[in-house]
Design brief:
Layout lengths: L10 E7 L4 E2 L7 H16 L1 H4 L4 E4 L5 E6 L5 E3 L5 H26 L5 H9 L14 E4 L2 E4 L4 E2 L10 H39 L6 E7 L4 E7 L5 E2 L5 E2 L2 E5 L13 E6 L7 E11 L6 E10 L2 E10 L3 E9 L1
Antiparallel strand pairs: 1-4, 2-8, 3-4, 5-6, 6-7, 9-14, 9-16, 10-11, 10-15, 12-13, 13-14, 15-18, 16-17
């Protein structure tokens, strides 16, 4: 293989069959013999880092496949196997490269078109045409990004399309969504640990369905469950429709809990079918507190969900519901 200073195939990364991927447009196949010259021009005009991510293609002897070589050496890791923080860093590098390629395209378009310059003008947009899904053609070699299969698609295409820009936006949104999910899961675990700790210390029961109330002040909040048959479980009626209120905290001035919790559990399937409404009542205010923040936890079939709210005055709030078929 012929090497050019600064731009040379140094490490095998990937291979694709030509019956699986096709070069884009009439000039596409020229990529295999002009890649180094194209990338050398890009490096000279936009800096070495602009050209470094692009793997160099080579036909195999039978011309049935293209092999892709990174311009540097190191451990090869597919992009999709990288942890999220490394994916984000690679995307930042790829965005910088994209901007440099677009700047080079603009520069070439303003110059007279003939000879090599015409060829480079035709080939430069191919650098941003990755087959979709784009993520399967991205790698990290050592600590640097590497792109394979640029200038190719899985179906015949006349014109190159910048698939990098949309990919960057979509994958960054994916990373944001994953970060949000991780934060929600961490908050869920924290809530669950807080609830389970309090319920365990209070000696609360669990069952087929468990409804719990947690708050963090001296006020007396009461947990209610309105049954479909018109009955109700609360401090005033601790058992109905198969459920039992077994924990009732902060009911008495002389026994204020620093970690109040209330709990209603059905050891078996509720005896009445229909919709059950869960309510919270601020029964008594203490220490000048006129409002209380709370969290209700409902566990059905082993899955917990949470509803947060705030109750003031002597309000009664319906906060959530569950249905027994």
């Amino acid at each position: 293989m012929q090497n050019r200073p600064g731009v040379a195939p140094r490490q095998f990364v990937d291979r694709n069959l030509l019956d699986e991927y096709l070069f884009v447009g009439e000039s596409g196949e020229k990529v295999t013999v002009n890649a180094e010259k194209l990338l050398t021009l890009l490096a000279r005009r936009q800096g070495a880092q602009a050209a470094a991510p692009f793997a160099i293609p080579r036909f195999d002897e039978a011309r049935t496949a293209v092999r892709w070589f990174a311009q540097h050496t190191g451990a090869v890791t597919p992009f999709v196997e990288l942890p999220d923080d490394q994916q984000a860093a690679l995307l930042d590098q790829l965005e910088q490269t994209r901007q440099q390629v677009l700047a080079m395209e603009q520069e070439l378009s303003t110059q007279p078109q003939s000879g090599d310059r015409l060829l480079y003008t035709q080939l430069m947009p191919l650098l941003l045409n990755f087959p979709q899904p784009v993520e399967y053609h991205l790698f990290q070699v050592g600590t640097q990004p590497v792109v394979t299969n640029w200038g190719m698609n899985k179906s015949a295409s006349v014109r190159p399309v910048d698939t990098v820009g949309p990919f960057l936006a979509q994958w960054r949104q994916r990373l944001r969504d994953r970060a949000r999910q991780a934060a929600e899961q961490a908050a869920h675990r924290q809530r669950e640990q807080s609830f389970l700790g309090r319920l365990t210390r209070a000696g609360a029961k669990t069952g087929e369905i468990t409804v719990s109330l947690l708050w963090n002040d001296a006020n007396d909040l009461d947990l209610h469950v309105e049954c479909p048959d018109g009955s109700e479980i609360s401090f005033a009626n601790k058992s109905a429709c198969g459920g039992i209120l077994d924990i009732d905290r902060n009911a008495f001035d002389q026994s204020i809990s620093p970690e109040p919790v209330e709990n209603i559990a059905w050891s078996q399937r509720p005896t009445v079918s229909g919709t059950y409404h869960v309510g919270v009542h601020l029964f008594r205010q203490r220490q000048g507190l006129t409002t209380s923040a709370f969290t209700v936890r409902v566990v059905e079939k082993g899955k917990a969900r949470y509803v947060q709210g705030r109750v003031s005055g002597r309000d009664y709030l319906r906060v959530t519901s569950f249905t027994v078929p």
